[in-house]
Amino acid sequence: MSWVVLLLAGLFEIGWAIGLKYSDGFTRLYPSIFTVVSMAISLGLLSLALKQLPLGTAYAIWVGIGAVGTAIVGMVWLGESMAPMRLISLAVVVIGLAGLKLSSVS
């Protein structure tokens, strides 16, 4: 169950990263509220997952989900570059995250 909680924490991290883009430096009310709420939920879920999961593994996976997910959303939703090297780099990160998960004892 801790892995599911960690996945949800990572998804909320994607949400707050996107929210930062749309909050325009916290000058737009609703995107700013969305961002802060997403941050709080993400960190709260991460803290719950850390009760059972190793710190280094859980934190790296949380950050990785956020980074890869945000990059994918940027490419798909915001029209950012889909250059082959960028896609290969994201794939390498995903492989690293899978390796961390598979090597974890929890």
TrEMBL record:
Organism: BD1-7 clade bacterium
Top-level taxon of origin: Bacteria
GO CC annotation, single: plasma membrane
Gene name in the database record: sugE
Example GO molecular function: transmembrane transporter activity
UniProt protein name: Guanidinium exporter
Topology relative to the membrane: Multi-pass membrane protein
Subcellular localization: Cell membrane
Transmembrane segments: 33-50, 57-77, 83-100
SUPFAM superfamilies, per database record: Multidrug resistance efflux transporter EmrE
UniProt record similarity statement: Belongs to the drug/metabolite transporter (DMT) superfamily. Small multidrug resistance (SMR) (TC 2.A.7.1) family. Gdx/SugE subfamily.
Location (main, coarse): membrane
UniProt keywords, alphabetically: Cell membrane, Membrane, Transmembrane, Transmembrane helix, Transport
Short name of any one Pfam family annotated for the protein: Multi_Drug_Res
A Gene Ontology BP annotation from the UniProt entry: xenobiotic detoxification by transmembrane export across the plasma membrane
